[in-house]
Design goal:
The chain is α/β, with parallel strands linked by helices. The chain has one domain: NAD(P)-binding Rossmann-like Domain (Rossmann fold, 3-Layer(aba) Sandwich). The protein is 36% helix and 17% strand. It is built from five helices and seven strands; from the N terminus they run H-E-H-E-E-E-E-H-E-H-E-H. Strands 2-1-5-6-7 form a five-stranded parallel beta sheet, with helices on both faces. It has a two-stranded antiparallel ribbon with strand order 3-4. Helix 3 runs parallel beside helix 4. The two termini are 25 Å apart. 34% of the residues are buried.
Length: 146
């Protein structure tokens, strides 16, 4: 991510205005979990959000079918949003990097950071965001999708 706030805002705005399909790894069906609310928010903003959670595979949450893994999703993914802890992030990034086509963005949620995995993705031309929430950034940047 860019070093100064102005560049960071432009970087995040560009991502949030260009991605359409988001796979949320670690999405939950529990209303008390942050991923549940972020999932609903992103859907309400017009994104196509796909839940990835092995325990919920085949179930519908927020009207969308959940998948066991990224590889099981039958369509291209623009962004992988990682709602797992930092220790699990590297494996999720590797799973995302194995996709064909690869996602354009790897986004790690608040509190989630793996610099080594992020560097692997960036080396392949993928944009990486760590320790940020797309819902918070969407609201902060006052994004208005067309």
């Amino acid at each position: 991510m860019p070093l100064n706030d102005t560049d960071a805002d432009a970087f995040l705005r560009d991502i949030l205005l260009t991605v359409k399909t988001i796979a949320m790894v670690g999405a939950s069906d529990k209303e008390t979990r942050p991923s549940f609310g972020v999932f609903a928010f992103l859907l309400a903003q017009g994104y196509h959000v796909i839940g990835v959670n092995p325990g919920l595979a085949g179930r519908r949450v927020h009207g969308t079918t959940f998948f066991k893994s990224l590889a099981d999703i039958p369509e291209p993914i623009d962004m992988v949003d990682i709602f797992r802890n930092s220790a699990a992030a590297g494996a999720v990034v590797d799973e995302a990097l194995a996709l064909d086509p690869k996602p354009k963005v790897i986004w790690m949620q608040l509190g989630v950071q793996d610099d080594v995995a992020g560097a692997r993705a960036q080396a392949l031309g993928i944009k990486v965001v760590m320790n940020h929430c797309p819902k918070i950034e969407y609201q902060h940047l006052a994004i208005q999708k067309v």
